[in-house]
Specification:
Elements lengths: L1 H10 L14 H4 L4 H22 L2 H15 L3 H12 L5 H9 L5 H20 L2 H16 L1 H8 L8 H8 L4 H17 L3 H23 L4 H26 L1
Helix pairs in contact: 3-4, 3-8, 3-11, 4-7, 5-6, 5-7, 5-13, 7-13, 8-11, 8-13, 9-10, 9-11, 9-13, 10-13, 11-12, 12-13
C-alpha cells in the first residue's frame, strides 16, 4: 500500500497521513497504482458533474467540474504542459530544457493553457448528459496509465530529476498492468466506444511524448505531465465525436 500512498500524494493534493519517501525513484515503483488514483479522481469528477448539472446550466457546470478537476490535481500536469510549450521557443535541446526548468510562464505556455482549458471545458459541456459522467470517470484512469508505458519506451532527457528517476525505476510489468486496468475500467463504463477512447488517448500521449522527446533528447517530468493532460482531452473529444456521429 506504500506505492498507493506515494502515487496519491504525488498525483493529487489530498492530504494523507504518513511520511513521504525521500527517494525520487519511489514514484516509479508506485506507477502501477496510477490508474487507481485516476479512478479516484474520476469518481470525484463523476460526483461533481452530477451535482453541478442539477444546479447550473451546462457550460457553467462544465467549468465548475473542470475547475474541481484541476484543483484536485494541483495543476501539476498543466504546469508540465505549459513548460513543454514554452520549451518550443528554444533553439536546441539544452536551451529547451533550460526554458522548461524556468518557473516563469511564457507566451507559448500561457496561450496553450488558455486554449487547452477552453477545449476541455467545452468538450465536457457538449457531451451528452448520459455519457458525460462516465467519460469523466474513465479518462483520468486511461491518462494515468500512460506514464509507465512512456517511461519504458523513451530515455530520460537528463541524468537527474524526477523524469530520470521515474524512467529508471518503473518496472517492466507496471505498464501492461496499468494499461490493462485502464482498459477494463473503460469497457465497464463506456462499453462500445471504450476501445476507441482507450486507443486514441494512449496514442495521443505517445505522439505528444515522441514530439517533445525528439526536441529535448528524451523525456522529463514535464513531458509526462503534458502527456497525461493531452490523453485526457483526447479521450473527452473522442467520446464527444462518437456521440455526435451516432446520434
Amino acid at each position: 500500500m506504500t506505492g498507493l500512498l506515494v502515487a496519491a500524494r504525488y498525483l493529487t493534493i489530498v492530504p494523507l497521513p504518513g511520511v513521504v519517501p525521500g527517494r525520487a525513484d519511489s514514484l516509479g515503483r508506485a506507477a502501477v497504482w496510477f490508474p487507481a488514483i485516476g479512478l479516484g479522481i474520476g469518481a470525484v469528477l463523476f460526483g461533481a458533474e452530477r451535482v453541478t448539472a442539477v444546479l447550473f446550466p451546462s457550460l457553467l457546470a462544465a467549468l465548475l467540474t473542470v475547475t474541481a478537476w484541476k484543483l484536485l490535481t494541483g495543476g501539476l500536469h498543466l504546469d508540465g504542459l505549459a513548460d513543454c510549450l514554452d520549451g518550443l521557443a528554444g533553439h536546441d535541446a539544452e536551451h529547451r530544457l533550460a526554458i522548461m526548468r524556468d518557473s516563469c510562464i511564457g507566451a507559448f505556455g500561457a496561450i496553450g493553457l488558455i486554449l487547452f482549458l477552453l477545449l476541455e471545458v467545452v468538450a465536457v459541456a457538449e457531451l451528452p448528459s448520459g455519457s458525460r459522467g462516465r467519460a469523466l470517470l474513465v479518462v483520468p484512469v486511461i491518462a494515468r496509465a500512460t506514464p509507465p508505458l512512456l517511461g519504458r519506451l523513451f530515455p530520460a532527457a537528463k541524468m537527474e530529476g524526477l523524469g530520470a528517476a521515474f524512467a529508471a525505476s518503473v518496472s517492466g510489468w507496471a505498464a501492461p498492468t496499468a494499461l490493462a486496468i485502464a482498459l477494463v475500467v473503460a469497457l465497464a463504463a463506456l462499453h462500445a466506444v471504450a476501445v476507441l477512447v482507450f486507443a486514441v488517448s494512449v496514442l495521443s500521449a505517445l505522439a505528444l511524448t515522441r514530439f517533445f522527446a525528439a526536441r529535448v533528447s528524451g523525456i522529463t517530468g514535464d513531458i509526462l505531465g503534458a502527456a497525461i493532460e493531452v490523453a485526457e482531452l483526447a479521450g473527452l473529444l473522442t467520446v464527444s465525436a462518437w456521440a455526435h456521429l451516432v446520434r
